[in-house]
Amino acid sequence: MTNVPNAPAPAPRWAVRCAHAAALTTIPSGLWRIAMAFGLPVGYSDEVLRQDFHIPGVGVVYVAGLSVVCEALALLTIGLVRPWGEVVPRWIPFIGGRRVHPLAAVIPAGLGAIALTVLWSGFLTWWSVEHRPAFEGPWGDIVGVCYQPLVLWGPLLGAVTVNYYLRHRRPVNTSPLGRSWAF
């Protein structure tokens, strides 16, 4: 392995684990939505599925598409700890092989972490609400279990983003004696 000047340090093990955990947070809710799209019983009455979600119908595409988009976005977190988050893969037209500017990754990831934290923090209180009239039987609890991991998506993305930024910031100028002059 050759030393590349100004190459960022590899991601620490905790950041890699957090990135993979972030990618996994969307799977339970995505599976629940896909089950709903296929018309499987997920707690909503057939009437609610038809009126509110247009299932069967155009709502199937929306609900299944939302699951796919959420998982694809969650998988981008892994790019913050892998080489393809530092250099664009060569197979991508026009920009393949170019280095990723750190702020091009940090700004969207940071804004995403904030937005996800705000969006999903409401599920922290899911079980404090006693009555959910849209759900029949134990489905309110099942939905809570499926959506609860999303509460972690934003904070995990935020932690990995901060680590990415710290690993990719410009090196501190040092004197010939090796002393850092940054404050």
Automatic annotation (TrEMBL):
Membrane-spanning segments: 60-81, 102-127, 147-166
Keyword annotations for this protein, in alphabetical order, are: Membrane, Transmembrane, Transmembrane helix
The protein, known as: Uncharacterized protein
Origin species: Streptomyces rubellomurinus (strain ATCC 31215)
